[in-house]
Amino acid sequence: MIVRFIVALWIGFSVTQISLAAPEPSTAALSLETVYQLAIDQAPSLAIAQYRVDSAEAQSADARGSLLPQVSLFGEWSENKISYDGSLSALYGRQNYPGERYGFQARQALFNVAAFREMQRRRTLFDRSESDLAVAKIELIMLVTNAYLSVLIADDTVKQFAMESEALQKQLEEAEALYARALLPLTQVLETQTRSETVKADLIEAEGNAAIAREELTEIIGQRNFELMPIADSITLLARMATPEQAVAQALENSPAVSAAEEGRDAAELGVKREKGSWWPEVSLVVNQQYSDVGFDNQTSPARTTDSVSISVSYPLIRGGSGSARIRGAWADYYVAKEELEGIKRSVETQTRSALVRLD
In Å, how far are 1, 96, 287, 307 from 292, measured between CA atoms? Predict the structure, then answer.
Protein backbone atom coordinates (compact mmCIF):
# COMPACT_ATOMS: atom_id res chain seq x y z
CA MET A 1 0.00 0.00 0.00
CA ILE A 2 2.92 2.35 0.63
CA VAL A 3 4.03 2.16 -2.98
CA ARG A 4 0.59 3.13 -4.24
CA PHE A 5 0.42 6.33 -2.30
CA ILE A 6 4.05 7.31 -2.80
CA VAL A 7 3.24 7.18 -6.51
CA ALA A 8 0.24 9.45 -5.86
CA LEU A 9 2.23 11.81 -3.63
CA TRP A 10 5.24 12.34 -5.82
CA ILE A 11 4.20 12.64 -9.45
CA GLY A 12 7.12 12.00 -11.70
CA PHE A 13 8.73 9.52 -9.32
CA SER A 14 9.29 6.81 -11.90
CA VAL A 15 10.50 3.28 -11.59
CA THR A 16 13.88 4.17 -13.01
CA GLN A 17 14.53 6.60 -10.15
CA ILE A 18 14.50 3.89 -7.52
CA SER A 19 18.24 3.78 -8.30
CA LEU A 20 18.65 0.21 -9.40
CA ALA A 21 22.42 0.78 -9.63
CA ALA A 22 24.79 -1.96 -8.66
CA PRO A 23 28.53 -1.89 -9.21
CA GLU A 24 29.02 -3.31 -12.74
CA PRO A 25 25.89 -5.53 -12.70
CA SER A 26 25.67 -8.61 -14.87
CA THR A 27 24.20 -8.08 -18.32
CA ALA A 28 21.69 -10.85 -17.58
CA ALA A 29 20.45 -9.19 -14.39
CA LEU A 30 17.00 -7.63 -14.61
CA SER A 31 16.30 -4.16 -13.27
CA LEU A 32 13.02 -3.25 -11.60
CA GLU A 33 12.02 -1.29 -14.68
CA THR A 34 12.68 -4.30 -16.92
CA VAL A 35 10.73 -6.58 -14.61
CA TYR A 36 7.82 -4.14 -14.69
CA GLN A 37 7.84 -4.07 -18.50
CA LEU A 38 7.77 -7.89 -18.55
CA ALA A 39 4.88 -7.87 -16.08
CA ILE A 40 2.89 -5.48 -18.28
CA ASP A 41 2.95 -8.05 -21.09
CA GLN A 42 1.93 -10.88 -18.75
CA ALA A 43 -0.57 -9.33 -16.30
CA PRO A 44 -4.15 -10.60 -16.85
CA SER A 45 -5.55 -7.79 -14.67
CA LEU A 46 -4.01 -5.18 -16.97
CA ALA A 47 -5.31 -6.91 -20.09
CA ILE A 48 -8.81 -7.17 -18.58
CA ALA A 49 -8.78 -3.47 -17.67
CA GLN A 50 -7.72 -2.60 -21.24
CA TYR A 51 -10.50 -4.75 -22.71
CA ARG A 52 -12.99 -3.01 -20.45
CA VAL A 53 -11.78 0.33 -21.81
CA ASP A 54 -12.39 -0.97 -25.35
CA SER A 55 -15.84 -2.24 -24.36
CA ALA A 56 -16.78 1.06 -22.69
CA GLU A 57 -15.61 2.97 -25.77
CA ALA A 58 -17.79 0.78 -28.01
CA GLN A 59 -20.82 1.24 -25.74
CA SER A 60 -20.26 5.00 -25.76
CA ALA A 61 -20.21 4.99 -29.56
CA ASP A 62 -23.36 2.86 -29.59
CA ALA A 63 -25.20 5.32 -27.34
CA ARG A 64 -24.04 8.24 -29.50
CA GLY A 65 -25.22 6.44 -32.64
CA SER A 66 -28.79 6.26 -31.35
CA LEU A 67 -29.01 10.06 -31.73
CA LEU A 68 -27.64 10.10 -35.28
CA PRO A 69 -29.72 9.53 -38.45
CA GLN A 70 -31.05 6.00 -38.88
CA VAL A 71 -31.68 4.76 -42.44
CA SER A 72 -33.23 1.41 -43.26
CA LEU A 73 -34.35 -0.41 -46.42
CA PHE A 74 -37.34 -2.71 -46.56
CA GLY A 75 -38.93 -4.96 -49.12
CA GLU A 76 -41.79 -7.40 -49.44
CA TRP A 77 -42.72 -9.73 -52.24
CA SER A 78 -45.95 -11.72 -52.08
CA GLU A 79 -48.08 -14.09 -54.14
CA ASN A 80 -51.78 -13.68 -53.31
CA LYS A 81 -54.36 -16.18 -54.57
CA ILE A 82 -58.14 -16.11 -54.27
CA SER A 83 -60.72 -18.75 -55.13
CA TYR A 84 -64.50 -18.69 -54.69
CA ASP A 85 -66.71 -21.45 -53.39
CA GLY A 86 -70.17 -22.46 -54.52
CA SER A 87 -71.87 -21.07 -57.60
CA LEU A 88 -69.31 -18.24 -58.00
CA SER A 89 -66.46 -20.64 -58.54
CA ALA A 90 -67.43 -21.30 -62.15
CA LEU A 91 -67.88 -17.56 -62.82
CA TYR A 92 -64.68 -16.18 -61.34
CA GLY A 93 -62.42 -19.17 -61.10
CA ARG A 94 -59.05 -18.86 -59.37
CA GLN A 95 -57.30 -15.47 -59.44
CA ASN A 96 -53.68 -14.55 -58.68
CA TYR A 97 -52.46 -11.17 -57.37
CA PRO A 98 -48.65 -11.02 -57.27
CA GLY A 99 -47.37 -8.06 -55.26
CA GLU A 100 -44.25 -6.25 -54.30
CA ARG A 101 -43.44 -3.41 -51.93
CA TYR A 102 -40.06 -1.86 -51.19
CA GLY A 103 -38.57 1.43 -50.14
CA PHE A 104 -36.51 3.13 -47.48
CA GLN A 105 -37.06 5.05 -44.28
CA ALA A 106 -34.86 7.69 -42.63
CA ARG A 107 -35.37 8.72 -39.02
CA GLN A 108 -33.64 11.47 -37.05
CA ALA A 109 -34.24 12.05 -33.35
CA LEU A 110 -35.10 15.68 -32.70
CA PHE A 111 -35.83 15.55 -28.99
CA ASN A 112 -34.95 12.54 -26.86
CA VAL A 113 -33.79 13.40 -23.34
CA ALA A 114 -33.34 9.78 -22.23
CA ALA A 115 -31.09 8.90 -25.18
CA PHE A 116 -29.04 12.09 -24.72
CA ARG A 117 -28.49 11.37 -21.01
CA GLU A 118 -27.57 7.78 -21.81
CA MET A 119 -24.94 9.03 -24.26
CA GLN A 120 -23.48 11.26 -21.50
CA ARG A 121 -23.57 8.37 -19.02
CA ARG A 122 -21.74 6.03 -21.38
CA ARG A 123 -19.10 8.66 -22.03
CA THR A 124 -18.58 9.05 -18.27
CA LEU A 125 -18.34 5.27 -17.86
CA PHE A 126 -15.67 5.26 -20.56
CA ASP A 127 -13.71 7.85 -18.55
CA ARG A 128 -14.09 5.64 -15.49
CA SER A 129 -12.76 2.61 -17.37
CA GLU A 130 -9.63 4.60 -18.21
CA SER A 131 -9.24 5.52 -14.52
CA ASP A 132 -9.68 1.84 -13.60
CA LEU A 133 -6.89 1.02 -16.06
CA ALA A 134 -4.64 3.55 -14.31
CA VAL A 135 -5.50 1.93 -10.96
CA ALA A 136 -4.58 -1.48 -12.39
CA LYS A 137 -1.20 -0.12 -13.52
CA ILE A 138 -0.47 1.29 -10.06
CA GLU A 139 -1.48 -1.98 -8.40
CA LEU A 140 0.81 -3.81 -10.81
CA ILE A 141 3.69 -1.50 -9.84
CA MET A 142 3.03 -2.31 -6.19
CA LEU A 143 2.81 -6.05 -6.90
CA VAL A 144 6.01 -6.10 -8.97
CA THR A 145 7.92 -3.99 -6.44
CA ASN A 146 6.90 -6.21 -3.52
CA ALA A 147 7.77 -9.38 -5.42
CA TYR A 148 11.09 -7.91 -6.61
CA LEU A 149 12.12 -6.85 -3.12
CA SER A 150 10.94 -10.16 -1.65
CA VAL A 151 13.29 -12.07 -3.96
CA LEU A 152 16.24 -9.80 -3.12
CA ILE A 153 15.59 -10.02 0.62
CA ALA A 154 15.12 -13.79 0.47
CA ASP A 155 18.33 -14.29 -1.51
CA ASP A 156 20.24 -12.03 0.87
CA THR A 157 18.87 -13.96 3.86
CA VAL A 158 20.05 -17.23 2.31
CA LYS A 159 23.56 -15.78 1.82
CA GLN A 160 23.70 -14.56 5.42
CA PHE A 161 22.62 -17.89 6.86
CA ALA A 162 25.03 -19.73 4.54
CA MET A 163 27.94 -17.58 5.71
CA GLU A 164 26.93 -17.99 9.35
CA SER A 165 26.56 -21.76 8.91
CA GLU A 166 30.00 -22.01 7.34
CA ALA A 167 31.55 -19.96 10.15
CA LEU A 168 29.83 -22.05 12.82
CA GLN A 169 30.96 -25.25 11.12
CA LYS A 170 34.57 -24.06 11.34
CA GLN A 171 34.00 -22.97 14.94
CA LEU A 172 32.57 -26.39 15.74
CA GLU A 173 35.58 -28.14 14.21
CA GLU A 174 37.91 -25.95 16.30
CA ALA A 175 35.85 -26.61 19.44
CA GLU A 176 35.96 -30.35 18.89
CA ALA A 177 39.73 -30.18 18.38
CA LEU A 178 40.17 -28.21 21.61
CA TYR A 179 37.86 -30.61 23.44
CA ALA A 180 39.93 -33.55 22.23
CA ARG A 181 42.94 -31.90 23.94
CA ALA A 182 40.89 -31.20 27.05
CA LEU A 183 41.24 -27.47 26.47
CA LEU A 184 37.48 -26.82 26.18
CA PRO A 185 34.55 -28.09 28.22
CA LEU A 186 31.95 -30.34 26.58
CA THR A 187 29.17 -27.84 27.24
CA GLN A 188 30.72 -25.25 24.94
CA VAL A 189 31.12 -27.85 22.20
CA LEU A 190 27.47 -28.84 22.54
CA GLU A 191 26.36 -25.18 22.51
CA THR A 192 28.31 -24.56 19.29
CA GLN A 193 26.88 -27.72 17.77
CA THR A 194 23.33 -26.69 18.73
CA ARG A 195 23.81 -23.25 17.25
CA SER A 196 25.23 -24.78 14.05
CA GLU A 197 22.26 -27.12 13.66
CA THR A 198 19.84 -24.28 14.33
CA VAL A 199 21.42 -22.12 11.66
CA LYS A 200 21.33 -25.04 9.22
CA ALA A 201 17.60 -25.35 9.84
CA ASP A 202 17.20 -21.61 9.34
CA LEU A 203 19.16 -21.90 6.10
CA ILE A 204 16.84 -24.62 4.80
CA GLU A 205 13.80 -22.49 5.66
CA ALA A 206 15.36 -19.42 4.02
CA GLU A 207 16.10 -21.41 0.85
CA GLY A 208 12.47 -22.50 0.76
CA ASN A 209 11.26 -18.92 1.20
CA ALA A 210 13.61 -17.77 -1.55
CA ALA A 211 12.24 -20.45 -3.90
CA ILE A 212 8.67 -19.38 -3.11
CA ALA A 213 9.52 -15.72 -3.69
CA ARG A 214 11.03 -16.56 -7.06
CA GLU A 215 7.96 -18.57 -8.04
CA GLU A 216 5.74 -15.61 -7.20
CA LEU A 217 7.85 -13.31 -9.37
CA THR A 218 7.91 -15.95 -12.12
CA GLU A 219 4.12 -15.94 -12.13
CA ILE A 220 4.15 -12.16 -12.66
CA ILE A 221 6.80 -11.89 -15.41
CA GLY A 222 6.52 -15.29 -17.09
CA GLN A 223 10.26 -16.08 -16.80
CA ARG A 224 11.76 -18.70 -14.51
CA ASN A 225 15.54 -18.32 -14.73
CA PHE A 226 16.55 -14.76 -13.93
CA GLU A 227 18.91 -12.65 -11.89
CA LEU A 228 17.93 -9.33 -10.32
CA MET A 229 19.86 -6.12 -9.86
CA PRO A 230 20.25 -5.06 -6.22
CA ILE A 231 18.55 -1.91 -4.97
CA ALA A 232 20.80 1.04 -4.13
CA ASP A 233 21.33 1.98 -0.51
CA SER A 234 19.53 5.32 -0.83
CA ILE A 235 16.50 6.65 -2.68
CA THR A 236 16.17 10.27 -3.77
CA LEU A 237 12.65 11.69 -4.01
CA LEU A 238 11.85 14.38 -6.55
CA ALA A 239 9.42 16.22 -4.28
CA ARG A 240 8.67 16.53 -0.61
CA MET A 241 5.38 17.32 1.08
CA ALA A 242 5.53 20.14 3.61
CA THR A 243 2.56 18.96 5.67
CA PRO A 244 0.34 15.85 5.84
CA GLU A 245 -2.57 17.99 4.65
CA GLN A 246 -0.64 18.88 1.51
CA ALA A 247 0.17 15.23 0.94
CA VAL A 248 -3.49 14.24 1.34
CA ALA A 249 -4.63 16.98 -1.05
CA GLN A 250 -2.07 15.86 -3.62
CA ALA A 251 -3.09 12.21 -3.25
CA LEU A 252 -6.81 12.99 -3.61
CA GLU A 253 -6.10 15.08 -6.69
CA ASN A 254 -3.91 12.49 -8.44
CA SER A 255 -5.37 9.18 -7.24
CA PRO A 256 -6.92 7.22 -10.15
CA ALA A 257 -9.08 5.36 -7.61
CA VAL A 258 -10.68 8.63 -6.50
CA SER A 259 -11.12 9.70 -10.13
CA ALA A 260 -12.80 6.38 -10.95
CA ALA A 261 -15.16 6.73 -7.97
CA GLU A 262 -16.02 10.31 -8.94
CA GLU A 263 -16.78 9.24 -12.49
CA GLY A 264 -18.89 6.38 -11.17
CA ARG A 265 -20.88 8.84 -9.09
CA ASP A 266 -21.34 11.14 -12.11
CA ALA A 267 -22.47 8.21 -14.25
CA ALA A 268 -25.00 7.19 -11.58
CA GLU A 269 -26.32 10.76 -11.46
CA LEU A 270 -26.72 10.74 -15.24
CA GLY A 271 -28.55 7.43 -14.85
CA VAL A 272 -31.12 9.22 -12.67
CA LYS A 273 -31.47 11.98 -15.28
CA ARG A 274 -31.86 9.36 -18.01
CA GLU A 275 -34.76 7.68 -16.20
CA LYS A 276 -36.37 11.06 -15.59
CA GLY A 277 -35.87 11.92 -19.25
CA SER A 278 -37.79 8.82 -20.28
CA TRP A 279 -40.94 10.66 -19.12
CA TRP A 280 -40.33 13.47 -21.59
CA PRO A 281 -41.88 13.26 -25.07
CA GLU A 282 -39.75 11.80 -27.85
CA VAL A 283 -39.84 13.69 -31.15
CA SER A 284 -38.40 12.31 -34.39
CA LEU A 285 -38.35 13.36 -38.02
CA VAL A 286 -39.31 10.49 -40.35
CA VAL A 287 -38.77 10.49 -44.12
CA ASN A 288 -40.31 7.56 -45.99
CA GLN A 289 -40.47 6.53 -49.65
CA GLN A 290 -42.25 3.40 -50.78
CA TYR A 291 -43.01 1.75 -54.10
CA SER A 292 -45.86 -0.75 -54.04
CA ASP A 293 -47.58 -2.89 -56.62
CA VAL A 294 -49.99 -5.03 -54.62
CA GLY A 295 -53.66 -5.74 -54.57
CA PHE A 296 -55.81 -4.16 -51.88
CA ASP A 297 -57.98 -6.77 -50.17
CA ASN A 298 -57.01 -9.10 -52.99
CA GLN A 299 -58.38 -6.66 -55.57
CA THR A 300 -56.25 -5.23 -58.35
CA SER A 301 -54.65 -1.89 -57.60
CA PRO A 302 -52.32 0.17 -59.79
CA ALA A 303 -48.63 0.45 -58.91
CA ARG A 304 -47.76 3.60 -57.02
CA THR A 305 -44.93 5.44 -55.26
CA THR A 306 -45.58 7.09 -51.92
CA ASP A 307 -43.39 9.81 -50.40
CA SER A 308 -43.97 11.08 -46.88
CA VAL A 309 -42.33 13.36 -44.35
CA SER A 310 -43.69 13.23 -40.81
CA ILE A 311 -42.97 14.27 -37.27
CA SER A 312 -43.33 11.39 -34.84
CA VAL A 313 -44.23 12.25 -31.24
CA SER A 314 -44.40 9.73 -28.42
CA TYR A 315 -45.34 10.60 -24.85
CA PRO A 316 -45.68 7.98 -22.09
CA LEU A 317 -48.73 8.20 -19.83
CA ILE A 318 -48.97 4.96 -17.84
CA ARG A 319 -46.24 2.34 -17.46
CA GLY A 320 -47.68 0.21 -14.73
CA GLY A 321 -45.26 1.61 -12.15
CA SER A 322 -42.14 0.40 -13.97
CA GLY A 323 -40.97 3.94 -14.78
CA SER A 324 -41.09 5.16 -11.17
CA ALA A 325 -39.46 1.91 -10.04
CA ARG A 326 -36.53 2.50 -12.41
CA ILE A 327 -36.15 6.04 -11.07
CA ARG A 328 -36.00 4.72 -7.48
CA GLY A 329 -33.43 2.15 -8.53
CA ALA A 330 -31.34 4.82 -10.26
CA TRP A 331 -31.41 6.97 -7.12
CA ALA A 332 -30.29 3.99 -5.04
CA ASP A 333 -27.37 3.39 -7.45
CA TYR A 334 -26.44 7.07 -7.14
CA TYR A 335 -26.35 6.96 -3.33
CA VAL A 336 -24.28 3.76 -3.45
CA ALA A 337 -21.75 5.42 -5.79
CA LYS A 338 -21.69 8.51 -3.56
CA GLU A 339 -20.91 6.46 -0.44
CA GLU A 340 -18.25 4.48 -2.32
CA LEU A 341 -16.57 7.75 -3.28
CA GLU A 342 -16.60 8.95 0.32
CA GLY A 343 -15.16 5.64 1.51
CA ILE A 344 -12.35 5.73 -1.05
CA LYS A 345 -11.47 9.32 -0.12
CA ARG A 346 -11.24 8.36 3.56
CA SER A 347 -9.12 5.32 2.71
CA VAL A 348 -6.77 7.40 0.55
CA GLU A 349 -6.40 10.00 3.31
CA THR A 350 -5.71 7.41 6.00
CA GLN A 351 -3.20 5.44 3.95
CA THR A 352 -1.49 8.59 2.66
CA ARG A 353 -0.92 9.85 6.21
CA SER A 354 0.32 6.41 7.26
CA ALA A 355 2.66 6.21 4.25
CA LEU A 356 4.05 9.66 5.02
CA VAL A 357 4.77 8.69 8.62
CA ARG A 358 6.50 5.48 7.54
CA LEU A 359 8.48 7.35 4.91
CA ASP A 360 9.68 9.87 7.49
Answer: 71, 17, 17, 11
